[in-house]
Amino acid sequence: MFKSLPEPWRIKMVEPIRMTTKDQRKHALIEAGLNPFLLKAEDVFIDLLTDSGTGAMSDRQWANLFLGDESYAGSKSYYQLSQVVKTIFDFQYTIPVHQGRGAEQILFPVLIELAKEKGVTEPVFLSNHHFETAQAHIELSGARAKNCICSASLQTEIADDWKGNFDLNELAKEIKNNKKNIVAIIITITCNSVGGQPASMENIRAAARMAHDSGILVIIDAARFSENAYFIKHREREFFDQTIPEIVKEMFSEADIFTMSAKKDGMVNIGGLCCFRNDEFLFKQTQLRCVPMEGFVTYGGLAGRDMAAMAIGLQEALNEDHLRSRIAQVEYLGNKLQQAGISIQTPVGGHAVYVNARKILPDIKSENFPALVLCNALYLEGGVRSVEIGSLIMGRNPITGKQEPSLFEFMRLAIPRRTYTDNHMSYVADSLIEVVKNADRLKPLEFEYEPKILRLFTSRFREIER
Ligand code: F0G
Fold it and tell me: Is it true that domain 22-51+319-463 has CATH number 3.40.50.720?
């Protein structure tokens, strides 16, 4: 077999994208308060802000979308979707939601209320790393979110196959010391916050079994479940000969509940899931919250056609040719940057290349947001939009109000599925290499406007001298 195979699809419809001049980009960036989130999308040439809801649907998805059943209750598309969930994950009960955080907002308050009814006074969730919205919904409901990420993930330049793993010693310690307060463990696959890094089956099993042995629920945050399965197939000996569907079933056999943003591996532009293996009581309790928050239990904030597209997208996510070509594209971009000496989280993850801004701009302090400086410079250079995952997204210490340095200062280049070609990636790499050559000219940032919460989305900045 050829080592490198082209994409397993051909293009049936194109969407023009617009190249701008440097002057136009400078103007657009100033208008946006030096915050890429506030740019107009039409002023962006290549948009790597996120891989969430930005992918291209297949002809089969579009075809099934036309068959969507828009009945308010009991839609045929709901039953099609829940049948697909049963087949892929072996989970009996499905609640559709408008996206991942929809699942988080209906599930976590239910679990926390039930724990409090049982006498838990300081509820806590443990995770390899909570995604921000999961953490926010846990905290909004009066519980704590603690991360037990493995130390390898902190060393960006050291290659380690499983940087998304739990630190099992840390997890064991937490369970031993605080068992009665732990509501659930959340296994985030892949682990977005540390670079889209996978957790191994060995680690998933060990963490889940540790939790179950102490009567603690196991939840999977499943946004990038099939990318995680692909890494397991290629990196974990026991699974070399297994298919992606077999590996997915095996991963999910360790969990009681999963929440999913289907905007990633689920391959839809909007949609999510909250599913239960066999706990009918928890399913019904969560359905009760779904009605006022997301909508009736068989549509959960989605149109029938959205559920129809998701039913196909979930199946396509398991296609190994798709996964190989997708992950090869992320590697392609990562390799080009590494060959130019640019420091990235190594090896690259499933959905994005995470550039280590701290290494590129060592003299810009965390409080002046080196990764955001880099994002803006890349936009100015080539019209490429990326996102800061560092001190800005982390926020201030809620108690002291101080801006402490985040563990990482990443510029994330997230790659939408089936959307851009390797030529686009070469252009992104060339643009960033140019930026890094002149990195000593880049200026630190300070707030012009700082909202109290969710700063990443609406803050405005000004440049200051070094
Ligand atoms: N869990 C993970 C691991 C995620 O990466 C996200 C979203 C969510 C949950 C929430 O899902 O957006 O559908 O409500 N991540 C996006 C990103 C926003 O850009 O990484 P959602």
Answer: no
